[in-house]
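Fresh eyes needed here. Have a critical look at this protein's tokenised backbone.
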Amino acid sequence: MNALSCVRCGTELSADALACPACAWLTRGDALKALAADAELSTRSGDLVDARSQWTHALSLLPAQSQQHALIRKRITDLTSRIDAAADPATAADPTPWWRRGAPGLAAVALVTLSKLKFLLLGLTKAGTLISMFAFFGVYWSIYGWPLALGLVVSIYIHEMGHVSMLRRLGIAASAPMFIPGVGALVMLKQHVDDPLTDAKIGLAGPVWGLGAALAAYAIYIATGAKIWMAIAQLTGFLNLFNLIPVWQLDGARGIHVLARDQRWILIGAIAAALLITEQRLLFIVGGVMIWRAFQPDNGPGDTRVLATFVVLVGALSLLARGVQ
């Protein structure tokens, strides 16, 4: 066999060595990271059998006496227990794929949404939006698979159309949504907004519609039991909660422009309560930046409706996103 050297300490190793005997460096580290990422994604989307298969493969790349081997063996045992507990004769006998079982629920929600919010189709008539959307979808399909990538694209599109809806209502010119892989999507305003209340309404409209998209995905999960919809609901909740961080060009920064100092502290209290209830760690960042903004001199005149909207968004999105840390 050909020998290789440890990248850490230089110890000569055999070609089939799984770890360096001197410093415990794992020779199959890159493959293990990839398998772990695939297993976590499968677990999050509800495909426990595939997750167990990925972890089993990873187990074969680890020394039997290593701590990682013991931890992964426990994960496999836990997954097996969950798979056995979820086994139902009626469900097992049904060969229908999860995406077909979820299709009626998705179609019903889509019909209701389109009947009441017809202008959701407006952005799809713009070539730039369609092209950038497909490019965004293609990138995330290669990373997460098409179901989660599609859910991500649709939820972000609905979020951005929330901004478009409010802008149209306020008579402010803006571009159609544009998708940017690795960033998300954005709507470019074609005129400057000086009024803090108007700015807050525009900023929070996206997360409000994003919350609606997350709740729709959760409703489909309840109706069908297809766990991919729970994963989409959680991811949508997490992304919209992230947008509430009051910094830079994020929606939260626009949302707090109108809030007075005492209202910002009320919001900080609501964030702390949501953190205690949901244990969603992203709230540490949201709350931390909010505390910093509470001490800044850019206080607004105050608006009770905006404050209430912000509080509801923090609570609801935290509950939905509690599975994503």
